[in-house]
Protein: XPP2 aminopeptidase
Amino acid sequence: NAALAHYSPSNGSSRILSAREMYLFDTGGQYLDGTTDITRTVHWGEPTPLQKEAYTRVLMGNIDLSRLVFPSNTAGRTVESFARRALWDVGLNYGHGTGHGIGNFLSVHEWPVGFQSNNVPLEAGMFTSIEPGYYRDGEFGIRIEDIALVVEAQTESGEEPFLTFEVVSLVPYDRNLIDLSLLSPEQIHYLNSYYERIRAHVGPELRRQRLEEAYAWLQESTEP
Structure:
């Protein structure tokens, strides 16, 4: 059912999952100090070459947009294609927006922030999702969604303000679906830095709560 980008379960369409397929879960919660919206796609068995390549290219798009440095007052639609480029390279695409504003204990989808033509220019302090995907009808769906904060970027010239994203979702990606041969050295460096942040922030909290099984999973999932 993940091939439907915004599928909702029902008694008529729900079925038992197997370890021989991909599983997409779009999850989040409302808290007094913020709203979360995170999507991960996993495969518990042996993914097909197409599934692995498609997932990796979705991840490449997520990384490329997340690490992008761009001028202030840039509209999201101007940079949105960075999330699609790795898919476009092989003739793949997805039919939904690349991201949306996220409220602070408000709407999960909050306008006017985002990457579509009618969204306002990005400014420091805005929260947006970054969520490229790929969907093959009747077979599988892939989406990787993180929440990112728009922040000022440190540039070499320092002549005028530039912006970038700081990803605040700290959840590992599925190593079983990543084809490292497709990733650039810069993308691999980004992944390793991201995993270091996850270990530094989430690891101690899991230990504090004595969630040792979760801690062991986290360490394994964030190896360089």
About this structure: The helical segments are 49-66, 76-79, 85-88, 185-208, 212-221. The longest strand covers residues 146-153. The longest helix spans residues 185-208.
